[in-house]
Every structure is written in C-alpha cells, then in structure tokens.
Amino acid sequence: MTVHFAARLALGAGVLAAGVTALPAAGHAAPAPDSATLVAVTERDPATGLNVKYPVKPGEVVPAALGVTNPGDAPVSGLVVQIRVVDDLDLAVKHDNCWYAVDSNLEAAWCEFDNELAARQTLAVVGDVVTAKADARPDKVTSIIFRWFSKQWVDAQGGVQQLADGDAGQGTKAVRGTGTALALTERDLPLPETPRPINFAYAQLVTPPTTQPTATATPSPGGTPTATPTGGTEPTAVPTGTAGAPGDGGTGGGGLPVTGANIGLLAGVGGALLVLGGGGYLIARRRRTRFVA
C-alpha cells in the first residue's frame, strides 16, 4: 500500500506544505490507526511558549530536538520517525537504519529504532540529521516536520522501506543509508499544548555581513593626513636656521638660506671695514695737499 502525507503550516506570510495525513491507495481500505499513543516533542522557548527556532549558518547541522514521549501506561516496543524538509534544508543520506526519498524540493527520511519507550519516558534523535545547504537562502530555510509511529503499526503497512517509497518522486525509490545507525537518547522535553504524534522544529539561517569596513586617513594635528612612506628610508626634515644637514658643508641637498644672528655679525664686520677704508682715504689725501714747491 502506498501512503502519502500532506499538511500545511503557515509561516509568516508564506505557507509551508508539508505534514502527514494517511491516504489509502485506490481499491484498499484505510489502515487502522496506530494503537500506540505517541506525542512528538521538541524544545520550547520559555519566554514565548513557542517551539525553539534554531539559528544555523550555511552548511551547518540544525541541532533540533526531535523527540517522542509515551504518555500512556504501557511501554511501546520499537519506534519509527518520519522526518521531512523542503527547499534549502537537507537530509544527509548516511544512517543505515534510515530510508531516504526525494520528490522535487521535498526530502524525507524514515528511520527505525529498536528502543523500547517506557511509560512517561521521552527519547530524542541524536545525530546530524538535518543540515542547511551551503548555498542556502534565508527565505528557503524554514521547518523540520517529524512524526512518530510504533514499529508494530509500520510493519502492518508493509514496513519502513515501503512507506519511504511512498514519499519518493514518480519513477524513483527510497535509498537506504550506509553509515552509522541513527540513535535515540533520553531527553527532558515539554509536552505541547495539543499532544499529537506530529510536530515542527524551526530553523533560521544566519548569514555573515556582506559589507567591508572602509579605511579612512587619520588627520594630523595640523589638519593634513599623515602618510607613511613605503620602502626606503624616511626623509629627514632640516630645521629652519641651519645651513643644511650635518656633514654636507652647509651646501648639501636643498638646505635653507642662512638667516638670523649670522647676518648681524657679517653686517658689523662690513661696517668696520667701511670706516677703516674711509679713514685711510682721508690720511692719504692730506699728505698730497702738503707738497711744497
């Protein structure tokens, strides 16, 4: 018998078509309901009372808690979970106790466990089940839909492989994983307000910022950006009032003109020479005017 599952989940402004409702194949009676009372559970945000939305980066595993609680008084021997994702969430084909099916943008996994679920006990899936694709887009990362069945009910429908084939696209079959088996571990997870075997875990894509910081010049105290030469030796500034850099004889390399106290000294020496010259001229003239014939 082929079994298909469908449901609709409103998420923000969009609607996610993915859920689980058993439909009988033509000419066959509807299957009997699962005699085991199972409740699908996950983590809830204490502040809002809603299911947790797990932040995840592209290529990372979504650490969602996909759990099951037995609220009844009798143990349930053997469990099966159906996990479904759409768009940019991905189911890695690896666990050998799971069968994987693809139908367009929908991926499904049916995983079988031999664990016994005691009365009032909660178990949850352990392992890297769902990942965000490396090129995932935020609007394409939404929900993980999971539903629990007793192994007894699944076997009565033809087994886990046949149910997985029902989720495969036309002309395709489910594929069994070849890696380490997916496991269950005991968890403390809250019961939802409406206990039922189906539940949803949410993922939210976290993307790194795309803008790069812009480098700006640091202004110097005088208002002019300070630049550091690249390569070679930094230039040496020559203070005002010197004849040049040390060792160049006062003439090297664009030295500044001589100013200040040196000019005054030269002016004084020039004045003294001028006085002495004038005196010598007068003495010579007087000697010439004393000539007696």
| Number of E-type strands | 15
SSE topology string: EEEEEEEEEEEEHHEEEH
| Average of pLDDT | 76
- How many angstroms separate the termini? 164 Å
SS class: alpha+beta
Helical fraction equals: 10-25%
As a percent range, the share of strand residues is 25-35%
| Major beta sheet summary | 7 strands, mixed
Kindly report the spatial arrangement of strands forming the biggest sheet.
4-15-12-6-9-8-13
Tell the overall outline: globular
| Rounded Rg | 46 Å
Helix run count = 3
Outline the low-pLDDT stretches. Answer: 1-27, 229-261, 272-276, 279-293
Would you write up a description of this structure?
- This protein has 293 residues and is α+β, with helices and mostly antiparallel strands.
- The chain has a domain at 8-205.
- Helices cover 14% and strands 27% of the residues.
- It has three helices and 15 strands.
- The strands form four sheets. Strands 4-15-12-6-9-8-13 form a seven-stranded mixed beta sheet.
- The model is unreliable at 1-27, 229-261, 272-276 and 279-293 (pLDDT under 50).
Features:
disordered N terminus, 293 residues, 15 strands, alpha+beta, 27% strand, 3 helices
How does the SSE layout of this entry go?
Layout: E1 8-11, E2 14-17, E3 39-41, E4 53-56, E5 67-69, E6 76-86, E7 89-91, E8 98-103, E9 106-117, E10 122-126, E11 130-132, E12 143-150, H1 151-156, H2 160-165, E13 175-176, E14 183-186, E15 198-205, H3 261-289
Parallel strand pairs: 4-15
Antiparallel strand pairs: 1-2, 3-5, 5-10, 6-9, 6-12, 7-11, 8-9, 8-13, 10-14, 12-15
